[in-house]
């Protein structure tokens, strides 16, 4: 029991701090920590600056991809309208072409006519921004702003019951998006 009491008393005594064995941070350790922190902060700031610089380019490419996809969807819409109206499925699209022939044109987002005379439009193949919509034809439009986008749609009749549609959007220097789709007379 005495042995236990002496152990308890020894553990309850305040310990003295020996400066020779309890060293703090040295100057070298502090410098290493500051260097690591500086490198981390610099890399983070660099990443933020680069992403801020790239944001407009990414936005432009995203809009171009959507405009290219819209070109395919507009041709598909004409096909579907033909079915609803009881017309031949490729009426106004490739009904005037023989197998293997192709033609280039454009389609207005709110129209159901494939226009091979896009150059006759007020903006040609270029796309303008009008009242929040990207349009080819700006006749009768409200406020119109120029954009860097041009879109051409190439149609090729691959057989009696199939069409290849390619929508190409150019959105500036080193920025072009091409989407290809296939439409069939599956009805």
- The oligomeric status of these chains comes to single chain
Distance between the termini: 100 Å
Shape: elongated
Give the low-pLDDT segments: none
The profile of the biggest β sheet is: 6 strands, antiparallel
What percentage of the residues does DSSP assign to strands (E)? 15-25%
**Rg from alpha-carbon coordinates:** 34 Å
Order of helices and strands: HHEEEEEE
The helix content, as a percent range, equals 25-40%
Helical segment count: 2
- Indicate the mean pLDDT: 83
For the record, the count of structural domains works out to 1
Counting DSSP E segments of at least 2 residues, the number of strands comes to 6
Strand-pairing-aware structural class: alpha+beta
Strand and helix map with partners:
Blueprint: H1 2-12, H2 27-85, E1 102-105, E2 126-130, E3 133-135, E4 144-159, E5 162-170, E6 176-184
Antiparallel strand pairs: 1-4, 2-3, 2-4, 4-5, 5-6
What can you tell me about this protein's structure?
- The mean pLDDT is 83.
- A hairpin with a 5-residue loop joins strand 5 and strand 6.
- Strands 1, 2, 3, 4, 5 and 6 form a six-stranded antiparallel β-sheet that branches.
- It is built from two helices and six strands.
- It is α+β, with helices and mostly antiparallel strands and 187 residues long.
- It has one domain.
- The longest helix has 59 residues.
């Amino acid at each position: 029991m005495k042995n236990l009491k002496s152990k308890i008393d020894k553990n309850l005594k305040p310990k003295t701090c020996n400066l020779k064995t309890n060293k703090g941070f040295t100057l070298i350790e502090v410098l290493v920590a500051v260097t690591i922190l500086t490198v981390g902060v610099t890399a983070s700031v660099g990443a933020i600056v680069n992403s801020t610089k790239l944001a407009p380019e990414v936005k432009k490419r995203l809009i171009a991809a959507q405009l290219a996809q819209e070109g395919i969807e507009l041709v598909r819409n004409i096909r579907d309208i033909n079915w609803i109206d009881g017309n031949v499925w490729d009426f106004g699209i490739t009904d005037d072409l023989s197998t293997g022939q192709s033609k280039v044109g454009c389609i207005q987002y709110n129209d159901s006519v494939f226009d091979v005379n896009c150059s006759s439009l007020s903006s040609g193949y270029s796309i303008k921004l009008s009242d929040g919509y990207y349009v080819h034809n700006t006749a009768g439009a409200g406020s119109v702003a120029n954009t860097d986008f041009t879109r051409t749609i190439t149609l090729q009749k691959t057989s009696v019951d199939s069409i290849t549609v390619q929508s190409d959007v150019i959105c500036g220097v080193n920025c072009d998006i091409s989407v290809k789709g296939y439409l069939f007379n599956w009805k």
